[in-house]
Amino acid sequence: MTVLVTGGDGQLGRALAALDRPERRVLAMARGRLDITDPDAVRAAVAAARPAVVINAAAMTDVDAAEGDRDRAFAVNETGAAVVADACRHAGARLVQVSTNYVFDGAAPAPYGPDAAAAPHNVYGASKLAGEAAARAAYPDGAVVLRTSWVFSPTGRNFVRSIAAAAATRDRLDVVDDQSGRPTAAADLAVACLAVADAPAAGGIVHVGGDPPVTWYDFAVAIVDRLADRLDRRPAVVPVATAQVPRPARRPANGVLDCRSYVAATGRALPDWRPALDRVLAALSQETGGPERR
Ligand SMILES: NC(=O)c1ccc[n+]([C@@H]2O[C@H](COP(=O)([O-])OP(=O)(O)OC[C@H]3O[C@@H](n4cnc5c(N)ncnc54)[C@H](OP(=O)(O)O)[C@@H]3O)[C@@H](O)[C@H]2O)c1
Fold first, then answer.
1. Which residue's CA is the nearest one to ligand 1's atom 26?
2. Alpha carbon 26 to chain centroid distance?
């Protein structure tokens, strides 16, 4: 069988491509080969590949840039999702539409389950929520929405790489301690996408993310602890409030997803992000001769 992946050059796209096997081919198409806002191209690609499953990993993910570029965010994250879903319905391929905890406002005191009321705080979250609805409307029987959070990998723009780069040059890192969530390795998310695609009971919306939930501050400490062995000094990680570090897009305070839906649908445990972090830092170190020199 074939799994077609859009956004093949992104964090998730690359992690899915790494799962290519003779018995399950993964055809990951980067934006240069397949633009999901082009309906003819998407239909043609799906028709040619005849995939059993399509994973829509393409997205405009720059949360702050989306505040100033609403049109692009919605073109990719909403219209693109609808285009992919329509092509999947046409071809009878199951669709995993990847989405985000940023569809929630983060004001709830407990983790967010799939049926919790969505109320995005920012343009990115609103565009992803619109994409969920568009995909499900275009393909009610074949689209499953998989929400996740805080994705990290050895490539692309992510918190682990940012902290590693900052730790190499700075003595003090200010990191917010009033936002929490589930760090999720792209490699683990890729496995989760395939598990959800395989799970007949997975319908509607499923949540997955790494265990245990932490604050950004906790996550930064975990990264710096691991880097400290390789650095000749240990930068201080200082907890700060979100209000002290204003950014264009507002973020949810409680970003923790309730992921029991994933466990129930797939029979799998949630991935522990800590060994995944070890692997990502090792990969960074191998690529660059040490994260401190990036
Ligand atoms: N990153 C996170 O922390 C996070 C958290 C929660 C959910 N998610 C979701 O997880 C999924 C994967 O995210 P990721 O971290 O892998 O994102 P990523 O690294 O930014 O990858 C997204 C890819 O989509 C591509 N893309 C953008 N517009 C496209 C278009 N019109 N047609 C085809 N491809 C296009 C991008 O290409 P260019 O770079 O050339 O634009 C990029 O390679 C997304 O649905 C995202 O919303 C991510």
1. 58
2. 18
